[in-house]
Design goal:
Low-confidence stretches: none
Strand order of the largest sheet: 1-2
CATH architecture: Up-down Bundle
Number of strands: 2
Distance between the termini: 46 Å
CATH topology: Ferritin
Bound molecules: fe (ii) ion
Shape: globular
Number of helices: 10
CATH superfamily: Ferritin, core subunit, four-helix bundle
Order of helices and strands: HHEHHEHHHHHH
Helix content: 55-70%
Structural class: mainly alpha
Mean pLDDT: 96
Length: about 260
Amino acid sequence: MAVAVLNTADGRAKTALSRGYAAEWFAARDAGVDVEIGAATPPDFPARPTHPELLSPRDVPRRKPGTPEGRAAILHAVAHIELNAVDLHWDLIARFGHVPLPIGFYDDWVKAADEESKHFNLMCDCLEANGSHYGAMPAHAGMWKAAEDTTDDIMARLAVVPMVLEARGLDVTPGMIKIFKQAKDQQAIDALEVIYAEEVHHVSYGSKWFHFLCGRENIDPKPLFHDLVQTHFHSQLKPPFNEEKRAEAGIPPDFYWPLADGTA
Ligand SMILES: [Fe+2]
Ligand SMILES: [Fe+2]
């Protein structure tokens, strides 16, 4: 199932498949079916649509957030992140199938993949309501880099993807919501509020399973987290941090502050 999602190029088709499989997974779990994880080889790169055109971050044109074009660019960028997140969660499930983990690990990441699929669709709906669509403007290339950099280490994957990248989403989403409040775009406000509430869980799943794996190996989580982020994530973390939401997600300040850019 994970590989089928990864190999589907079209965004709406990918998320429809993802949501269907998640429903199947939870129906089986609720029915008490003894599910098997199985083994699969995920692709090096997930299939993606021919549009958006993928550009190096410095070549993606910047638009003023106070304009309709600027707001459309924000929605487009978030849609792109969400589509990448769908693939990241299914990739985590398929790529580390050889690591013995409790079934709850899969429950969490199937749920996260399902929610990312919903988030992508919400962003597409907002774009389409504004006469645009996903693929109408260029998007960042290199979003898959975090996956490539952590293909052989599940601890590194959990440290970099949910505990750094998705935690960053918690820092920046309130600012985006403010922009759409100023524009009185209720559809975008509602969609971003859903994303903001649900992303806390994805970060918490990362922290939970990172700590679980550390505990199983009797490793001190904090120095390992610092070490893995410094090795596999190629820049410093950007303050200001959303300390309250990060705490809610199980990421304490002494995990991220020592990795911060220009730490005072
Ligand atoms: Fe999301
Ligand atoms: Fe997420």
